Every structure is written in C-alpha cells, then in structure tokens.
Amino acid sequence: MTPAGTTLHVPHHPARRHTRSEPPYVRRLLIGTALTFIGLFLILPLLFVFTQAFAKGIGFYFHSIDEPMAWSAIKLTLLAAGISVPLNCVFGVCAAWAIAKFDFYGKNVLLTLIDLPFSVSPVIAGLIYVLVFGTQGWLGLYLNADHPALPWLANWLNDHNFKIIYAVPGIVLATIFVTFPFVARELIPLMQAQGRSEEEAARVLGASGWQVFWRVTLPNIKWGLLYGVILCNARAMGEFGAVSVVSGKIRGQTNTIPLHIEALYDDYNFTGAFAVASLLALLALVTLGLKTWVEHKNAAVLDK
Amino acid sequence: MLPGFKLTLGFTLFYLGLIVLIPLAAVFWKSSSLSWAEFWQTVTMPQAMASYRLTFGVSLGAALVNLVFGLIVAWVLVRYEFFGKKLVDALVDLPFALPTAVAGITLASLYSKNGWIGQFFTYTDEHHEVQSIFFSSRLGIFVALTFIGLPFIVRTVQPILEDIDPELEEAASSLGANRWQVFHRVILPMLTPALLTGFALAFARALGEYGSVIFIAGNIPMKTQITPVLIMQELDMYEYGRATAIAVVMLVVSFVLLLSINVLQWWTNRHNTHNLA
C-alpha cells in the first residue's frame, strides 16, 4: 500500500468519488426525514414522560413513588423479574449448549418452538395460564372434582387456598412465558458461530465438563449472556398485557409497576401515573445504555 | 466428545414443555369444548370480524410506514455522518425497551386534545365538543403500532446495508448507471429479503399488541376495538370458550407468520452469502 502522502496530489476522478454517495441535497433531505421521524416518534414521547412526571413539582413526584401502593408494585415487579430472569437464563444456557455443541434430529423445529412466545400476543400468553390454572381450567377442574386423583393433594391444596391465577404465582408464570426466548436467542447464534473446537481441546487436555463450561465457554459468551439478561429483565419488569390477564389487579397485592401505572391513569391521576412511569422510562434508558456498551465490548472481543 | 448433551437437551425440552407447549395446548383443548358450529359462530361474529379488519388493516399500514421510514433511518445511520448519530442509533431500540403501558399512556396524552401534538389536530364533534383526531380512532391506533414496530425494519436492514461490498456499486456506476439506478437495481434487490423480514416482524408484533394501543384507542366495539382487547372483554365476562376461540384464530395467524419469517430469514442468509462471498 502506498503511504497517504504520495497520493496527496493525485486528483480524484469526480465520477469515482461520487460512486458511493448522493448529492448533498439528497443527503440533507434523507437525514432531515430520518431525524424528524425519530424526533416525532421517539424523542418527543421520551421528553413528554419526564416533563409530565415533574408537572406538579419534585415533592409530588417523590410523594407518588414513596407510598405503600407504589412500593408494593415495585416489590412485586422485582420479585417477578428476580425469578423469571435467572430461570430463563439457566434455560438459555442449557438450550444454547445442546443446540450449538451437538448435532441432533429436529434442531430447527426446536429453534422455532423456542421462538414461539415472541409471536404470541401478550393477552393470549395470559389467557393460556388462566386456562391451565384458573377455576374454569385444568387446576380448577381437578380441585372441584368429586373424586380427584391423589385426593390428599387436592385436599391439601384446597385447605391451603392454593391460588395461581389472580395471585403472585400467575404473575411470575406469565412473566416467565413472555421473556422465555430472550437469553436463548442471544446465545444460540453466538455459540454456533464460536463452534466447539476450543471446548474439545480443553477436554482433550483433561478438563472436566464443568471446567470446560466455566473456563472456556463462559468467558466467550459473557457479553452475549449479559446482553440477553439485560433485554430479558427490561421485558420482565415492563410486561403489561399478559400480567394484566392473570393478576386480578388487586391494589397493594397483585399490581406490578405497569398495572399500578394503569390504575393511576384510570383514576385521572396523570401526574402520579407519569411519575411512576418515569421509573420504567429510566429503566429503559439504562437498558439502552447498557446495550450500547455491551455491543461495543462484544465488537472489541470479536475484533481481537 | 463434549459432555452434558442429555442433561441440557433434557432440561430444555422439559422447561419448553412446561412453560410453553402444555399451556399453549390448553387453548386448543378449551376451544374443543365448543362445537364446530359454536366455534365458527364466535370467530365470525360481527364484533370479531370488525376487530380483525381493524387489527390487520392498521397493523399493515403501520408496518408499511415503518418499511419506508425504517429504510431511510437505516440508510442514514449506515451511510452518513451527522451530529447525534450515536444517540439516534441507540434510541432506535427504545420501543423494545420502553414498557408498553408507559408507551400507551404517553402516546395517549401526547396525542390527546390538550397534548403537545394532539392540540394541533382537533375537530368539533356532533355534541359540539373539541376532540383530537387521534383519540378513539384508527389514526391513534396507527400511531401506537408505528411506534412499537419502528425498530424491526431498521435493525434487520442495518447489518445487511453495512455488509454490501462497495465494489458492486462502483462497478455499476463505472458501467454508466446513475445513483438512482444503482440504488434501485443493485442495492434494493440485495435488501429485499431483509426488508420483507423486518416488515413481517413489525406486522406480527403489531397484530398482538395490547398495552401501547388500549389507552389511545378508546376500545369502542365495532369501531376501535382491536382483537386482543376483544379477547380481554370476553375474559372479563367469563366467556372463556369465546375468548379461546378468538385466541385460536390469532394463534394460527401468528404461527403462519412465524413460519414465513423463518423462511424469509433463511432466504436472507442464503441471499447474502451468495452476494457477498
């Protein structure tokens, strides 16, 4: 390659210089269109959330967040995310290990099935758990049967007033369902691209299965895993449709943050609704920030 | 040979069955409690038909708008330098990250008759009251569905656009093609599979969307009630059979879309290795 200085005085051929570029007015028009679209649909709504949240001052803002119903919703949301994210994380790692490191029949079908929850409407995600665990569903039929199988179990469940729908377990289950594919989807293509030679080499050198995973695989997939966890968590904390079907919306008991926002909004307490909503908007911004940072890190790893 | 195949595949299948497949099977089990005639009557009742027309029509419109603007945003992000480009690139994913309920109340307030945008688009109704043209109307649902579908096309087109070999464009222009011809005849055909995939993803997402729509839509039966809201309404009336029947229709459509998206993605991958090799 010639050093840059030697080509300095060679004039560019005009036709060649413009082969990958548009006239300035076209560029300006396209950039203007894109920025207007982004500004109108993304930046304006984001500004609006924070402006409305502080519309009645900072005192009202903290009053809206620091009250028992809001705290109860925050705790329930943290609980649902705290259970569903680790479970889906373990699932994602297992699924990616099986799919990326081994060959077996029906792999493509399995991949499609893992994606299923993405294509199911949140309302239907809630509905399916009502059909399984609701009073009209499988569990209800079992508990109300005259001669149930395993009568001791039916009695025990009835005595303890065991409930899944319109209670916390239903909310957790619906959250697990809607966030099911996130970690697996990030890890499967990543681990497929990395292949299995490094792990096989470690095995030949005498490493145990766990050692291979912790010392070889995990360092290779950590950024992808983190990325999946971030997206999974954002969806878990923000899920609305599925949770609103199974929750029963009992204030202070089965309201998550999004359901609490809906309740405030329906009560015409708009500033309160936006104050609580600003917490989730902040979470979204942190998610986007972390996502950009992880992508940057991952690109650095791939460039090495 | 690596260990752990039986353990990991076993757990994967167990968890998939428990969380996804068995509960989904419940939908088909419950809908079989209706006779075929009852099922057909439920899924074709006027209120359901109106909700399908609305949901499909507006989802299609929103996905089409995103197809055009998503391509422009992806193009600008890949090809040009401008102030705030990194910020815009990160913000494109906002509709993925922002909870739908937050998007819902935000859009509803922003486009209401007193909102920042809605105040400029009002009319006086038959009761002499000022109304926003976005409120309780198809237009409002369209805004919400455009918002949630925005990232899909940008994110499917962007990587393909980044990978296009500059020599292809240079070759075309050295053979005398003008810039529009290069775009139309060389670049666009290479982007077609990605554009279709993004379009299908945005459309599929819009069909099932609930949270971002309900606050702005007004949910008036026969007029602005989308199908997920109709399912919710049947559930609130304890009409589980009817809710399930309509859910089956939506699920079948979603599965067909999921299959076409997988075929499209396979086509995209094949198309690219073919063009970029």
Give an account of the 3D structure:
The complex is a heterodimer of chains A (304) and B (277). Chain A is built from 15 helices and no strands. Chain A has 304 residues and is an all-alpha fold. Chain A is flat. Chain B has a single domain, classed as MetI-like fold. In chain B, a hairpin with a 5-residue loop joins strand 1 and strand 2. In chain B, helix 1 packs across helix 12, helix 7 packs across helix 9 and helix 7 runs antiparallel to helix 10. Chain B is globular, with a radius of gyration of 23 Å. The two termini of chain B are 32 Å apart. The mean pLDDT of chain B is 91. At the A-B interface, helix 2, helix 4, helix 5, helix 6 and helix 9 of A face helix 1, helix 3, helix 4, helix 5 and helix 6 of B.
Task: Give me the CATH fold name of chain B.
Answer: MetI-like fold
CATH class of chain B: Mainly Alpha
Runs of chain B with pLDDT <50, length 5+?
Answer: none
CATH architecture of the largest domain in chain A: Orthogonal Bundle
Number of domains of chain B: 1
Rough shape of chain A? flat
Main sheet: strand order of chain B: 1-2
Query: What is the tally of helical segments of chain A?
Result: 15
- Helicity level of chain A, as a percent range? over 70%
Helix content of chain B: over 70%
CATH topology of the largest domain in chain A: MetI-like fold
Beta strand % of chain B: under 5%
Q: Write down the oligomeric state.
A: heterodimer
